[in-house]
Write a structure and sequence with these properties.
559 residues; mainly beta; Immunoglobulin-like; 35% strand; binds 2-acetamido-2-deoxy-beta-D-glucopyranose; binds copper (II) ion
Length: 559
């Protein structure tokens, strides 16, 4: 029998500690290196074949899992034929690294085909469920994947579960995003319509996969995502809405869900019978596998706050005797109808949330910034050219990234439609988002607003038009990064309203403690492309210098 030297035994013991109990504190600050090699080729996520984007050969992009405190070094290789890309880590604050936000036109110029770029950043004081996705015009969510930041010590202190599962929900069109963008920005305006499919972990069935003849030689090949659980165990389901349009209702028959996390903030556990999750939002729910194990449960995802939903947002919850999760898709036959949606109730989900850790909410240190937004028609009479106006104007992305223009000293020469709102260091900013009926079709819609570089308190909202007697809702003020401006149910969508009618409002508050150039925008990508965005230049004098190794082509004027 061979004998290991004492030092090796010590190393073995240390490794055992690391594996068994999670990472010891002194090893917590790791550098994790990830490659994101972006390619495109034919695929058939819903059995209808089209060109899709793969990251490291898979769709959706692979999940990235790190620990709180880790430093990430992410190398993005753009191997697309002709499109520039950037990759944004949605919800990660990028404290001190505004150039790593991955937002093209704002934090960097997009990465041209054939080029590589490495982003470095810390996930300092954040933990929970995030996502990463492309952030260049309409291609926004053609590349998306889960980003999980573990803080096992903290999570296990409050919640008991035996395992984790991740469900990435997304919506999917058969038309290319380039065709969509041309339709949206062209005259006459052409809306993208509702998606053909709602995918779970990148697959569903639009056509019958056996008969459509569209079985792609490469994965994915459609079918239904299968999530396996063991009888008697409790799981943390991390549910990520990576849709470009859909506000989803998610149901699991025969199982109660208990929500414990919203956008990286732990909340008091609350039992819910279904989940409502907007584009860009994430929730963790606990579910216990205590139902009969001899059948499959069809989990469903359907769009709310739209006239109709794609009917194929199905995936399978399956009991298994193996502790290993199987990922092989199934080609079963789902139920014929989705669970009834019930009436759309503004803020139903938000009112189930109370932060687990109570933190003092600072008072705003300036006047409330009211951002009114509505659709405008800028086209000639009889032909529509449609944009979304927010605040003073419809936002036009600068050709050169705003942050680079900050370093160049050219922001002051920018087109007014691209200029940022200046924010002093550490100002406590209160923003009142007020939706109004525009000139086109009299509709009120929901809008998921996402802020870069900061999380905010979601201070509640209401129907119609805000007035100063309406106080912030501090009870449900969860710190998050994506909130919903709901339309009043009575003014919703199908019922045309006169121009100027208040559709609904919501208030958020954030501490501007992260110098940089940051976007606040609607996460409905079509709305973003149509100008529903604004930018903040936070504490320009305190923006740290650009790292010397920032790629040449970035500052050389290539778009
Ligand atoms: C990404 O591409 C590089 C360069 O071709 C290669 O060295 C690396 O192994 C690839 N990474 C992955 C995860 O596929
Ligand atoms: C797809 O795009 C083409 C070209 O823009 C357009 O003619 C067609 O109507 C679009 N199809 C759908 C389903 O939106
Ligand atoms: C698990 O194993 C038990 C006992 O062998 C068996 O009765 C049961 O059907 C199995 N369940 C599944 C889901 O395979
Ligand atoms: C798909 O087609 C095959 C072959 O015709 C059939 O056996 C199967 O039931 C169909 N599946 C669905 C989901 O309709
Ligand atoms: C937003 O609308 C309100 C009410 O019509 C108006 O008082 C306010 O000035 C508008 N704010 C901005 C910034 O345009
Ligand atoms: C909004 O209006 C609906 C009825 O249309 C009502 O049920 C709801 O309570 C209102 N919400 C708020 C926050 O006032
Ligand atoms: C910065 O200025 C240099 C020199 O004038 C110019 O070549 C470069 O394109 C500018 N970069 C940006 C991002 O404006
Ligand atoms: Cu919107």
């Amino acid at each position: 029998m061979f004998r290991l030297p004492v030092a090796l035994w010590a190393l073995y013991a240390l490794l055992l500690v690391v594996v068994v109990s999670g990472r010891p504190a002194h090893l917590a600050k790791q550098v994790s290196h990830f490659d994101l090699n972006v390619t495109e080729s034919l695929g058939a996520p819903d059995c209808h074949e089209r060109v899709i984007r793969y990251v490291n050969g898979v769709y959706p992009a692979p999940a990235i899992t790190v620990n709180t405190g880790d430093r990430l070094r992410v190398t993005i290789r753009n191997r697309l034929e002709s499109e520039s890309i950037s990759i944004h880590f949605h919800g990660v604050k990028q404290t001190g690294t505004p150039w790593s936000d991955g937002t093209s036109h704002i934090s960097q110029n997009a990465i041209p085909p054939g080029k590589d770029m490495t982003l470095e950043f810390h996930v300092r004081d954040q933990a929970g469920t995030f996502l990463y996705h492309a952030h260049n015009a309409m291609q926004e969510l053609s590349i998306f994947g889960a980003l999980i930041v573990q803080d096992q010590k903290e999570d296990r202190k409050h919640f008991k579960y035996d395992g984790e599962r991740t469900l990435v929900l997304s919506d999917y069109w058969h038309n290319s995003s380039i065709a969509q963008e041309q339709g949206l920005l062209g005259t006459p305006f052409k809306w993208i319509g509702d998606p053909q499919s709602i995918l779970t972990n990148g697959i569903t069935q639009f056509a019958n996969c056996s008969t459509s003849g569209k079985l792609s030689p490469k994965a994915p090949n459609g079918g239904y995502a299968v999530t396996t659980v063991e009888k008697g165990k409790t799981y943390r389901f991390r549910i990520i809405n990576a849709a470009t349009l859909g506000f989803f209702r998610f149901d699991i028959p025969g199982h109660k869900m208990t929500v414990i996390e919203a956008d990286g903030t732990l909340v008091e556990p609350r039992a819910i019978d279904h989940l409502e999750i907007n584009a860009g939002q994430r929730y963790s729910v606990l579910i216990t596998a205590s139902s009969p194990s001899d059948k499959d449960y069809w989990m469903s995802t359907q769009a709310m706050w739209r006239p109709k939903s794609a009917p194929n947002g199905w995936s399978i919850l399956r009991y298994s005797n193996s502790s290993k999760e199987s990922t092989a898709p199934a080609h079963g036959i789902p139920p014929t109808s989705l669970p009834p949606k019930g009436p759309e109730i503004s803020g139903w989900m938000d009112r189930h949330l109370v932060p687990l850790h109570k933190v003092r909410i600072p008072a705003p240190t300036g006047p409330t910034m009211q951002l009114n937004f509505s659709q405008i028609n800028t086209g000639p009479v009889g032909a529509n050219t449609v944009r979304w106006k927010i605040g003073r104007q419809s936002y036009v992305l600068p050709n050169q990234a705003m942050l680079l223009q900050h370093y160049n000293g050219t922001i002051k020469d920018m087109d007014p439609a691209s200029k940022p709102i200046y924010v002093h260091k550490n100002r406590v900013v209160d923003i009142l988002l007020q939706a109004r009926v525009g000139t086109l079709n009299g509709v009120c819609e929901q809008h998921p607003f996402h802020l870069h570089g900061h999380s905010f308190w979601d201070l509640g909202g209401g129907n119609g038009t805000w007035n100063p007697t309406m106080r912030p809702d501090t009870k449900h003020a969860v710190i998050r990064d994506t909130l919903t401006v709901y339309p009043s149910p009575s003014a919703y969508f199908e019922t045309p309203q006169p121009e100027g009618t208040g559709c609904g409002w919501r208030r958020l508050r954030f501490v501007a403690d992260n110098p940089g150039a940051w976007m606040l925008h609607c996460h409905i990508v079509a709305h973003l492309v149509m100008g529903m965005a604004t930018t903040f230049l936070v504490a320009p004098n305190d923006i740290p210098p650009l790292p010397a190794n920032f790629p040449d082509w970035m500052t050389g004027g290539i778009h």
